[in-house]
Amino acid sequence: MTHRLALGRTAYDRGMATIEPSIFTRIISREIPADIVFEDDRLIAIKDINPQAPVHLLVIPKTQAYRNVAELALAEPELLAAMISVSQSLAEEHADGDFRLVFNSGDAAGQTVFHVHAHVLAGGLEESSLV
Predict the structure, then answer these.
(1) What is the CATH number of domain 16-122?
(2) Which member of 56, 94, 115, 117 is catalytic?
(3) What pTM was computed for the model?
(4) Domain-by-domain residue ranges, the chain?
(5) pLDDT tens for residues 41-56?
(6) Is 119 designated active site?
């Protein structure tokens, strides 16, 4: 099912159906190995291969339909809520429950994989640090 965004077309409409699968889609399909820490029918969570904090996990929807968190929030807010809930559970499991949740949206913001995902960062983070 394709969702229409309030401000435009879905990623599917923009041609994502004809592009190569993202690295996350390839991890989900087990073409690329990853250290999986959580999985259900809608989400997968993995350890980041280049951690920026003592705990650095990625929570990823299994759909490649959304490039960033704004698209996801407009189209499927319940999936975004599930991502946040899983992030909290993972922070409780892998740290003390306190965590920073980061969504990079766009090249200039540091997004390198255009398949929406959340960075769960935990463990000794200072308020003044960006990561």
Answers:
(1) 3.30.428.10
(2) 117
(3) 0.83
(4) 16-122
(5) 999 999 999 999 999 9
(6) no
